[in-house]
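$ fold --in a.seq
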Amino acid sequence: MKEINMKYGQGKMTAFIEEKNLLKIIESNAFKQDKTEDEIISEALYNPIDSERLKDIVHEGETVCIVISDITRSWQKPHKFLYKIVEELNAGGVKDEDIIFLSAQGTHRKQTREEHEILLGKQLAKRFEVYDHDCFDEEGMEYLGETTYGTPVIVNKKAIECDHIVITGAIIYHFLVGWSGGKKSILPGISSFKSISHNHSLSLNEGLGSGTRDVVCSGNIIENPVHDDMMQAAAMVKPSFMFNVIMGPDGNISGAVSGNYITAHEAGRKLVDSIDGVNIKKKSDIVIASAGGAPKDINLYQSIKTLINAKEAVVDGGYIIVLAQCSEGIGEIKDIKDMILNFDNMLDREKDLRENYTISKYVGYFFCETAEKYKLILVSEINPVLLKNTKIILTKTLEDALKIAYDGENKNLTVNLMPHGATTLPKLI
């Protein structure tokens, strides 16, 4: 019997699995980094990919907009690299008064001064003001054109009016666009709600009742319309330079790329794959995935990454057991609650999603759709009333979840375990 501890909220749950049934414990690949975070950042900045150094791109008298991620992405440690980017700009002759920071809020809320300080660090926060993008402020945006997918590209004027746009952030797996970072700083980052909504709606197949597109998933950009559409939007904006970090399993910066926003991002994706893309030889009958404990399982909304990754390790129609405490329930965003609570069938959910698409609605829809296609068991403290209109099975313990999975079934069902389901992506070879 194999004993595996899985994080759950602030504590843990233990999985006891017959060793003969255990296919794989899906963990991040072994990764050794002998450089400090500062060394990694500097090396990337001084050796850009398919680009001159930032200091050689800019000139005295030119204006620069540095696009940064918002407080929900503070784990990127932007205070570690933003001051180095400013140093590069200053070395190129750009004065502080010609530099603005624009936070890529997407559809997220406005931030506080204290949160700006967390992102920039105390010294930079004293030198610069941070502007929060407002996706509903149409007067503060400029229309640049339309993509081949029909998405209106409407972008923050503060960025467009600058001579240079520098995009920053981190590259991780993303359930809509394949990988985050790069072009996401533009769309959805500093785009209109109309642009964001239309772009994200490409995650659905054409025609009511057809559900989500299989190609719109973590780790895939091939024929992924959400990705392609974002790339077209970014091409209209023409960022001058990109700097993105890659995080290691320990939560520290383990890599960084800079330069051309297309080819540098490609190099970053390969590094993410080398760390968190885990090869598996076989999908299992049961996958047990932990979100990784708090805060990754604080609510159902935050647990979507775990569900999407877990799907890649289980056979069609198999058991997906997700450990997510959800101490704050579904989440505070109204749209996801409405999607889960207000409908009792998938067709009506899909119709509502198509009529007024939001990312939070999509998250709710995806949970419900997965429960239709698989046997989805959620080990959680969430109020059962919140899930009564879905096919999600709710238990309090992992032991109870496994009893359900094995009840009336072959006791030799195979199992894949994902202790860090929110970050590791299984890849069938």
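$ fold --in b.seq
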Amino acid sequence: MSTLTSSTVAPVDFAGLAARFRPVFARIAAGASAREQDHRLPAEQIKELTAAGFGALRVPVADGGLGASLPQLFRLLTELAAADSNIAQALRGHFAFVEDRLVASGAQRDVWLARFVRGEIVGNSWTEVGSVTVGDVITRVRPAVGGKPGELVVNGTKYYSTGSIFADWIDTFAQVGDTGKNVIAVVNAHQPGVTHSDDWDGFGQRTTGSGTSTFVDALVTEENVIDFDTRFKYQTAFYQAVLLAVLAGTVKAAEVEIAAEVKARTRIFSHGNSQSFATDPQILQVVGEVSAQAFAAEAIVEKAAWALQGAFEGAFLSDVVEEERLNDLAELATAQAQVVLVALATRATSDIFDALAASGVSRSKNLDRHWRNARTAASHNPWVFKARIVGDYVVNGTQPNRIWSIGAAPK
């Protein structure tokens, strides 16, 4: 068992990590379009990833994991998103919880790292259902009636439970019934008190396994109820960075498919510029622009990931002021990245059709899924608010709010 500090994080060879997972990514990509069309959840694909150790990417080598840095993690998440953006987003809650356990201390840290190494996956369940006033939490944790010492129950309903349908554990935001303390209750998903509905009805990211999670006297042990105030400080930046990787991977997937379609096309236009679509300079310009946008998207994700790496390392400094500064920088970096990448990704995944003519919109090709997926991922955490926050920092030095919530406006 290791005690992690920034000075003990040894560099891991990215080429070796990539070689381990790229064959899995290729198999995932081969069936991505069909799964989306048929609405088949990628449960087997996620199992193959976890069996290969993907869920333990961030776990230190000394603890049985692969020891990836945050830039390495996000490079691989971008590649995974290029194969199937749904799967990358489905693992968002898992990697966030892994990150939280990495900066934690005590015996439970080692317990959780061992679970990740065994291939156990954590889902996400935070957003309250219904007209809950912004900031309120109605999901409750209370002592189990007639239960054993340290045995509690969770009751509540959540939406946007991305990835929870694939999970062994569900990271659930709740309040302690008698104190009102905000906590994370990590609930074992394999029990009768937990149900999950695949009822997400968005037009994109259809197979993330999102939807409604319901907890009815779901058992949770005291050691798996974590004080929310101890949660890793760069969490919102981390969650946003996963969506950035989803967007970047989606653009890359669009680039790959548009190039293949243009190369294979035999029909031309009489008023075009070549006897071949694959050599028409105007068509090549469109493909080149999308490729450049994919390049820029990946660079943006990497820049944000380095800011997150700084925040991670800041968690092990004995300097609270510097730690806070690094966390603010990570929040700002992911916000700046989001503002740019949303526009870039939605444009690139729309522009692909300029190179394909009417046949490109064929339902059988399913190329519109890239725009739908990008538009859906881009709609989380509206960028317009992030742009204002960045502007307020640049002009007035106002520090970004790293914790926020969603709900009905107060009456």
